[in-house]
Amino acid sequence: MTLASEIAAQAAKFAAEWHSPNTRRVYAIAWKQFGEWCYANDRADDDLASIADYLTERAESLSTSSLSQHLAAIKCVIKGRGLKIEWDNPRFSAVWKGIRHAKGTREAPTPHQAMTDRDILRILRMIPDTPAGRRDKAKVARIARHWKRRLAA
Length: 153
Hints:
7 helices, mainly alpha, 71% helix, single chain
Protein backbone atom coordinates (compact mmCIF):
# COMPACT_ATOMS: atom_id res chain seq x y z
CA MET A 1 0.00 0.00 0.00
CA THR A 2 1.39 3.39 -0.96
CA LEU A 3 1.62 6.34 1.36
CA ALA A 4 -1.07 8.18 -0.60
CA SER A 5 -3.49 5.24 -0.36
CA GLU A 6 -2.76 4.86 3.38
CA ILE A 7 -3.53 8.54 3.89
CA ALA A 8 -6.71 8.23 1.81
CA ALA A 9 -7.79 5.19 3.85
CA GLN A 10 -7.13 7.06 7.10
CA ALA A 11 -9.05 10.10 5.80
CA ALA A 12 -12.00 7.84 4.90
CA LYS A 13 -11.88 6.34 8.40
CA PHE A 14 -11.94 9.82 9.99
CA ALA A 15 -14.78 10.87 7.70
CA ALA A 16 -16.79 7.82 8.78
CA GLU A 17 -16.24 8.81 12.42
CA TRP A 18 -17.54 12.35 11.84
CA HIS A 19 -20.58 11.54 13.95
CA SER A 20 -20.77 9.36 17.05
CA PRO A 21 -22.20 5.84 16.71
CA ASN A 22 -25.44 6.94 18.39
CA THR A 23 -25.82 9.88 16.02
CA ARG A 24 -25.19 7.62 13.02
CA ARG A 25 -27.78 5.14 14.33
CA VAL A 26 -30.41 7.85 14.88
CA TYR A 27 -29.67 9.44 11.49
CA ALA A 28 -29.99 6.05 9.79
CA ILE A 29 -33.42 5.51 11.36
CA ALA A 30 -34.57 9.03 10.44
CA TRP A 31 -33.29 8.66 6.86
CA LYS A 32 -35.01 5.28 6.53
CA GLN A 33 -38.32 6.78 7.66
CA PHE A 34 -37.90 9.67 5.24
CA GLY A 35 -37.03 7.28 2.40
CA GLU A 36 -40.08 5.13 3.15
CA TRP A 37 -42.28 8.24 3.16
CA CYS A 38 -40.81 9.35 -0.19
CA TYR A 39 -41.38 5.91 -1.69
CA ALA A 40 -44.97 5.69 -0.39
CA ASN A 41 -45.76 9.18 -1.70
CA ASP A 42 -43.81 8.85 -4.97
CA ARG A 43 -41.55 11.78 -4.04
CA ALA A 44 -37.86 12.49 -4.66
CA ASP A 45 -35.68 12.34 -1.57
CA ASP A 46 -33.45 15.22 -2.70
CA ASP A 47 -36.21 17.76 -3.35
CA LEU A 48 -36.85 20.61 -0.91
CA ALA A 49 -40.60 20.48 -1.51
CA SER A 50 -40.58 16.79 -0.55
CA ILE A 51 -38.56 17.52 2.57
CA ALA A 52 -40.89 20.37 3.56
CA ASP A 53 -43.96 18.20 3.00
CA TYR A 54 -42.42 15.33 4.98
CA LEU A 55 -41.66 17.60 7.94
CA THR A 56 -45.17 19.07 7.73
CA GLU A 57 -46.78 15.64 7.82
CA ARG A 58 -44.51 14.38 10.61
CA ALA A 59 -45.15 17.55 12.66
CA GLU A 60 -48.42 15.95 13.78
CA SER A 61 -46.63 13.11 15.57
CA LEU A 62 -43.09 14.31 16.32
CA SER A 63 -41.73 16.98 18.66
CA THR A 64 -39.83 19.94 17.27
CA SER A 65 -36.62 18.38 18.60
CA SER A 66 -37.29 15.12 16.75
CA LEU A 67 -38.15 17.00 13.57
CA SER A 68 -34.86 18.89 13.88
CA GLN A 69 -33.08 15.57 14.21
CA HIS A 70 -34.82 14.24 11.09
CA LEU A 71 -33.88 17.37 9.18
CA ALA A 72 -30.25 17.09 10.34
CA ALA A 73 -30.19 13.46 9.15
CA ILE A 74 -31.63 14.40 5.77
CA LYS A 75 -29.12 17.23 5.38
CA CYS A 76 -26.25 14.93 6.35
CA VAL A 77 -27.16 12.26 3.80
CA ILE A 78 -27.78 14.77 1.03
CA LYS A 79 -24.47 16.50 1.78
CA GLY A 80 -22.76 13.10 1.82
CA ARG A 81 -24.11 12.44 -1.67
CA GLY A 82 -22.40 15.64 -2.81
CA LEU A 83 -25.69 17.31 -3.71
CA LYS A 84 -26.17 21.04 -3.30
CA ILE A 85 -29.53 22.11 -1.92
CA GLU A 86 -30.61 25.68 -1.25
CA TRP A 87 -31.62 25.25 2.38
CA ASP A 88 -32.43 28.96 2.62
CA ASN A 89 -35.11 28.59 -0.07
CA PRO A 90 -37.97 30.95 0.92
CA ARG A 91 -40.73 28.29 0.79
CA PHE A 92 -38.74 25.72 2.73
CA SER A 93 -37.60 28.30 5.29
CA ALA A 94 -41.16 29.52 5.77
CA VAL A 95 -42.47 25.98 6.31
CA TRP A 96 -39.71 25.09 8.77
CA LYS A 97 -40.05 28.37 10.70
CA GLY A 98 -43.83 27.93 10.73
CA ILE A 99 -43.55 24.42 12.18
CA ARG A 100 -41.17 25.61 14.88
CA HIS A 101 -43.37 28.60 15.66
CA ALA A 102 -46.60 26.59 15.79
CA LYS A 103 -45.18 23.72 17.82
CA GLY A 104 -42.74 25.75 19.86
CA THR A 105 -39.13 24.90 20.36
CA ARG A 106 -39.42 23.80 23.97
CA GLU A 107 -41.98 22.64 26.42
CA ALA A 108 -43.19 25.42 28.70
CA PRO A 109 -41.14 25.40 31.87
CA THR A 110 -42.88 24.11 34.94
CA PRO A 111 -42.67 26.27 38.03
CA HIS A 112 -40.24 24.95 40.59
CA GLN A 113 -40.16 25.66 44.24
CA ALA A 114 -36.99 27.49 45.18
CA MET A 115 -34.54 25.66 47.39
CA THR A 116 -34.49 26.88 50.94
CA ASP A 117 -31.38 27.54 53.00
CA ARG A 118 -32.16 24.31 54.87
CA ASP A 119 -32.10 22.35 51.56
CA ILE A 120 -28.74 23.85 50.63
CA LEU A 121 -27.26 23.07 54.05
CA ARG A 122 -28.50 19.48 53.78
CA ILE A 123 -26.77 19.14 50.40
CA LEU A 124 -23.55 20.66 51.75
CA ARG A 125 -23.54 18.23 54.70
CA MET A 126 -23.81 15.27 52.28
CA ILE A 127 -20.56 16.22 50.52
CA PRO A 128 -17.51 14.51 52.08
CA ASP A 129 -14.86 16.59 53.85
CA THR A 130 -12.03 15.86 51.42
CA PRO A 131 -10.09 18.31 49.25
CA ALA A 132 -12.39 17.52 46.31
CA GLY A 133 -15.43 17.68 48.62
CA ARG A 134 -14.41 21.11 49.94
CA ARG A 135 -14.05 22.29 46.35
CA ASP A 136 -17.52 20.92 45.54
CA LYS A 137 -19.00 22.56 48.66
CA ALA A 138 -17.56 25.90 47.55
CA LYS A 139 -19.10 25.45 44.07
CA VAL A 140 -22.52 24.51 45.47
CA ALA A 141 -22.44 27.48 47.87
CA ARG A 142 -21.39 29.86 45.09
CA ILE A 143 -24.16 28.61 42.76
CA ALA A 144 -26.74 28.83 45.56
CA ARG A 145 -25.72 32.44 46.33
CA HIS A 146 -25.85 33.33 42.64
CA TRP A 147 -29.40 31.99 42.17
CA LYS A 148 -30.60 33.43 45.46
CA ARG A 149 -29.46 36.91 44.35
CA ARG A 150 -30.86 36.42 40.86
CA LEU A 151 -34.27 35.26 42.07
CA ALA A 152 -34.46 38.10 44.59
CA ALA A 153 -33.97 40.73 41.87
